[in-house]
Automatic annotation (TrEMBL):
<keyword id="KW-1133">Transmembrane helix</keyword>
<feature type="transmembrane region" description="Helical">
    <location>
        <begin position="76"/>
        <end position="95"/>
    </location>
</feature>
<keyword id="KW-1003">Cell membrane</keyword>
<feature type="domain" description="ABC transmembrane type-1">
    <location>
        <begin position="70"/>
        <end position="284"/>
    </location>
</feature>
<protein>
    <submittedName>
        <fullName>Sugar ABC transporter permease</fullName>
    </submittedName>
</protein>
<dbReference type="InterPro" id="IPR051393">
    <property type="entry name" value="ABC_transporter_permease"/>
</dbReference>
<dbReference type="Pfam" id="PF00528">
    <property type="entry name" value="BPD_transp_1"/>
</dbReference>
<feature type="transmembrane region" description="Helical">
    <location>
        <begin position="265"/>
        <end position="287"/>
    </location>
</feature>
<dbReference type="InterPro" id="IPR000515">
    <property type="entry name" value="MetI-like"/>
</dbReference>
<keyword id="KW-0813">Transport</keyword>
<keyword id="KW-0472">Membrane</keyword>
<feature type="transmembrane region" description="Helical">
    <location>
        <begin position="209"/>
        <end position="231"/>
    </location>
</feature>
<comment type="similarity">
    <text>Belongs to the binding-protein-dependent transport system permease family.</text>
</comment>
<feature type="transmembrane region" description="Helical">
    <location>
        <begin position="107"/>
        <end position="129"/>
    </location>
</feature>
<feature type="transmembrane region" description="Helical">
    <location>
        <begin position="157"/>
        <end position="180"/>
    </location>
</feature>
<keyword id="KW-0812">Transmembrane</keyword>
Amino acid sequence: MGTYRKMSNTVVGLLFLAPALLFFVLFIGEPVVATLYLSFTKYNVITSAKWIGFDNIKHLFADDRLWLTYGNTLKYVLILTPMHAILGLLIALAVNRNIGKGWKYLYRTIFYFPVLATSAAVAVAWQFIFSKDFGILNFLLGKFGVSPIAWMQSPQWVYVAVAIYSFWKFIGNAFLYYLIGLQSIPAALYEAAEIDGANKTQRFFSITLPMLSPTIFFVLVTTLIGATQIFDEPYLITSGGPGDASRSVNMYIYEVAFQHHEMGYASTLSLSLFLIILCVTVFQFSISKKWVNYDRD
């Protein structure tokens, strides 16, 4: 009887898991296997895939344009990851102060609403904002005596433009994660520390940061992965220009696959990006044990 009941529970459990497993196999597992196979082929969608062995991999290491886009992507990672991780935390700390619930609701709405807006639609508005001759940003800077800046035409300023747009559009994600993490910290810990004579700075470094470390780790991992896979911001704001100055690896993969129709080589590029993200993520998890605190007792 016990064995039968155990088997019945297993079958029921598998039935509940079946939709998720089916989704994983169809939309994650199968594309991964197909990408791995296509990376060893020459395939342009129209004709059948032709096995070419390691030619795509050889092409990858000799592709100067690919390494240029990897360099651009590294710049995005170095700019966007600390920006979202640090500024998102500062905004969450400001909103989490002892202010009225109505103000907190208003601030949450203001900072998170851009995340819900359609990227393509708001990008059109930001292209006008960044316009050198007619943009409101240069107009406001001109009031302070700043000469017009070629936000989308200068290889130096294009990263600043992408960073500004990314901050406005996506800072709400990090902000919301931090805010939830802050609100889950027991108030009793702060009360006890205050009774012991700890000031605000001491309470922040002794309570807030350690208790918030799992959230900080989550934000760092997701933000770094998102920055490595960046596509929307440079594609919609700068189209990868000027030249290839702001073109990311994901944009290059898109171009190779859907403009040049080199699906085999695009699959190889995708695998290279996947392996890099995997290695970086594994490294992050390996060092997280040294600073992430999961003990809330």
